Description:
This protein is an alpha/beta fold. The chain is built from six helices and six strands; from the N terminus they run βαβααβαβαββα.
Amino acid sequence: MIQLKLITASTREGRKGPTVSAWVLELLKQYQDIEVEHLDLKVINLPFMDEPHHPRLGKYTHEHTKRWSRTIAAADAFIFVTPEYNYGFPATLKNAIDYLFQEWQYKPVGLVSYGGIAAGTRCIQLLKPVLSALKMVAVTESVNIPFFTKYINEDERFVSDESLDRAAHAMIAELIKWHGALSTIRASSMH
Length: 191
Ligand SMILES: Cc1cc2nc3c(=O)[nH]c(=O)nc-3n(C[C@H](O)[C@H](O)[C@H](O)COP(=O)(O)O)c2cc1C
């Protein structure tokens, strides 16, 4: 069983992130080998990174960090659902990432971005070097949703189309592949 954590990155009032995440979560139900947990950063509610030591040391002093560490350590793979804010990724996502170090390592991540004409692709490109610093593997097949509000109906539900569904399945297939390779690395004594 693959333990997959889907992280909803946006936290602002009136955000659309959970609407997009709900679509991905629904789609993930088709995968019997994947156990999914939704981590909504608004609910997790981490303060700005306030640990005195480098996360590499794992010497966490705050209960919120220890809890976040346990949650992320238990994951085999991730999906980040993120908007593009000013051509970048939201500070809430960077903050949640920066709290930890080893917990992220050698784990694959699928990126779902949404925005206007650029579909959040600029934010994804900026996110990749951050993820590589943590030895995460961002799978090539990302899901980038342009003019995403057109997929949200009057009931605030995200109604995808065939090409978005196909992109999401392709991303999940890659996550499964990389999980196989990276869990071997994690099982060895390399880190
Ligand atoms: C601070 C801020 C910056 C934004 N910058 C961009 C941007 O660079 N590119 C883009 O496509 N949309 C941008 N938008 C529009 C967002 O795509 C849209 O507001 C979306 O709903 C944000 O996701 P959220 O609702 O989950 O917060 C921005 C929105 C906010 C609030």
